[in-house]
Design goal:
heterodimer, A: mainly alpha, 0% strand, B: alpha/beta, Immunoglobulin-like, 6-stranded parallel sheet, 46% helix
Chain lengths: 231, 420
């Protein structure tokens, strides 16, 4: 029963929403359901935040490896929550000049905005910029010419990389504009024909996979996502 | 004296210029009006659209320079439909509902209501803002509700054929028929990876993507998670699942608990091993990669929707020497996983993973149904390419063949088909 009711809800909702795609009158129902989902997700966020606090406190309490990071997490969590909810540094809006908390919590110059702008953004940008180094190391491994396939991959990548840089274009700029041996033309041809064909093949497979998985879930053939009937 | 006359003359001339200019502006002739206005119901909608069409004003010439007509303004008069046995209806006034640029003779009014009927009028407006006389529709039109969006008919055809094939093969397998399923190396490696982690006495790490539970990839990832958790329970290894969404955390807990129960080891299940970190993409990556470096899991599974974090996670896993299996339906992330992971499930393989790992015959039947979809897709692609090539190469192709290619292009593939 614990599994059957969610399964029925998922199945009925799923089939109804598939139907709305074809019926103009019901086309907005999907958006409505998405709003319900957002409300549910917002409530579940409290569950997630609570869990994060609980596990971090346990880590500190038992001095488990990495407990220092847990302490930083808790301090950052509480500080952001208090500054955001307390609307520190928020200026009153014109309509309510006597109410200092009337302005939006994330307006420019507020404490929350400051944390986001000067703490979160730089940290996120730092993580993102690591990608450049990781791409280099992954490319170094992937492009080693170990066999015929890897050599073809390496050559293709070399052409595309060169064709997308100024230096690459400059190298073959002495050839006529429409010459197929120009690096930029070769790059364009590879991207438009070989790459697009491959991507489309993958996309068709993905679309069929999504259809099949959705059907399995809606028909209750695959119930692993809600456990088994044993529970 | 002469100076004073000169000044007066100049003032007179200035006045003359101003008056002439003013009269030129005020006497700017309005453009010729458009003609032949027709109003019809917009197809494939919920009774909210009407299409207004007219013939361009004679002054709205394509090559006109300077341009006389710059736009057309559309006014609407809404009349509530008279219910039976009620006093005469109240008529509203014409009010502007929209405008279109020159050389356009069509306007779609999407704010109509089935409880009203409408009259429209169109005016051409010149560069000086002068409006022509209006051309007015004579018959009031009521928008109609369509029960089925015909533009999506081809979607329905494909859905019924492929969906029907999936259901059919599930039933065939349920009746006891065996199916041959090819081996997928990435999925064969799942057991090997869990076994290796057990031997090394280290944990397994499972990342179900960074999207919420309403994304099909997350659902597919969680179904794979169920199988991995079953293996982990069987091998008495440990499994850690950091999540990026609260709902994914709660769903994962239910799934893993059920998998441990099915494996007969409910006592080994630890709820705290499945935990929420943050919704923020790079905050999540920082926490997960930090954990990976500290705890050094022996096997990492990445199954779900990934974005820029895919390579950050997979390269860190590679650096700590973990055996890595990834699966995603994000085409742009596949090259990163292929470069950094030991095994990658590409697109449909990822969606097939749950059925493949379950070894349940009726689930494997769904894979056969997918193959039918691929077969139909392949036939359509080959037939379409051949037809289009034949029509392009022939100097005088048969009109039937040409119509067929046009039909495929415009109805199956075009605006009325898969690309509305």
């Amino acid at each position: 029963m614990k599994r059957t009711i969610p399964l029925i809800i998922a199945s009925v909702t799923g089939f109804v929403l598939v139907g709305t795609f074809f019926i103009p009158y019901t086309r907005d129902w999907g958006d409505e359901v998405l709003e319900w989902f957002n409300i549910l997700a917002a409530i579940a966020f409290i569950l997630g935040g609570g869990n994060l606090m609980k596990l971090s406190l346990q880590k500190i309490s038992y001095k488990r490896p990495g407990w220092g990071y847990a302490a930083v997490t808790i301090i950052a969590f509480i500080a952001t929550l208090v500054i955001g909810l307390g609307k520190f540094g928020v200026a009153p809006v014109k309509e309510y000049p006597t109410y200092s908390l009337a302005g939006p919590y994330d307006e420019q110059g507020s404490g929350f905005w400051w944390i986001f702008e000067y703490v979160y953004y730089p940290l996120a940008a730092t993580m993102f910029s690591l990608l450049a180094f990781f791409i280099a190391s992954a490319a170094f491994r992937a492009f080693r010419a170990k066999n015929v396939e890897a050599t073809i991959l390496l050559s293709t990548a070399f052409i595309v990389l060169l064709g997308r840089t100024y230096a690459g274009v400059f190298l073959t700029s002495w050839l006529p504009d429409d010459n197929v041996l120009r690096l930029d033309n070769m790059t364009e041809w590879i991207m438009n024909n070989m790459n697009t064909a491959g991507m489309r093949a993958i996309t068709i497979g993905i679309a069929l996979g999504i259809m099949s998985t959705s059907l399995k879930v809606l028909l209750g053939v695959d119930r692993s996502y809600i456990g088994t009937d044993d529970g | 004296m002469q100076g004073s006359i000169r000044i007066r003359m100049m003032m007179l001339m200035a006045a003359f210029v101003v008056v002439c200019g003013w009269s030129a502006i005020s006497n700017a002739a309005p453009p010729a009006p458009p003609s032949g206005i027709t109003v019809k119901d917009a197809p494939n909608d919920a009774g909210t659209g009407l299409i207004v069409e007219w013939q361009l004003s004679p002054d709205d010439r394509k090559d006109a320079d300077p341009r006389v007509v710059v736009r057309y303004e559309i006014d609407r008069l809404a009349r509530p439909l008279k219910p039976e046995n009620e006093t005469p209806i109240k008529e509203s006034k014409f009010a502007k509902v929209g405008e279109v640029n020159f050389q356009l003779a069509k306007y779609l009014d999407q704010n109509a209501n089935r409880q009203h009927e409408y009259l429209y009028r169109v005016r051409a407006v010149s560069v000086d803002g002068e409006s022509s006389t209006a051309v007015e529709s004579t018959v009031a039109v009521q928008p109609e509700l369509q029960y089925f969006d015909m533009r999506r008919a081809w979607y329905l055809v494909l859905l019924v054929v492929v969906g029907g094939a999936v259901v059919y093969f599930i039933q065939v397998v349920k009746s006891g028929k065996d199916l041959k399923i090819r081996k997928i190396a990435g999925l064969e490696a799942v057991e090997e990876a869990v076994g290796r982690a057990t031997e090394m006495g280290r944990s397994c790490l499972f990342i179900p993507g960074i999207l919420d539970i309403n994304d099909i990839q997350t659902v597919a990832g969680i179904t794979v998670m169920s199988r991995v958790a079953g293996l982990v329970a069987e091998y008495n290894a440990s499994l850690e699942i950091p999540t990026c969404r609260s709902l994914v955390m709660t769903t994962s807990r239910e799934t893993v608990a059920a998998a441990y129960l099915s494996a007969g080891r409910p006592d080994a299940y630890r709820e705290d091993d499945i935990y929420y970190l943050t919704d923020e993409q790079f905050g999540y990556v920082a926490a997960v990669t930090g954990n990976m470096v500290r705890k050094k899991p022996a096997a990492c599974f990445y199954m779900g929707a990934f974005f820029a974090e895919s390579l950050l996670l997979a390269e860190t896993g590679n650096a700590i020497g973990a055996i890595q299996v990834a699966g995603t339906a994000m085409p742009s992330q596949l090259p990163f996983f292929v470069a950094a992971c030991d095994y990658t499930l590409i697109g449909e393989e990822f969606f097939a993973a749950s059925a493949y790992l379950s070894h349940e015959p009726h689930q494997l039947g769904s894979l056969k149904g997918q193959d039918i979809g691929k077969f139909i897709g392949g036939i359509l692609i080959i037939a379409g390419c051949l037809l289009a090539t034949v029509v392009a190469v022939m100097t005088d192709p048969p009109s039937g063949l040409e119509s067929l290619v046009t039909f495929i292009r415009e109805n199956i593939l075009g605006e009325k088909g898969f690309m509305p």
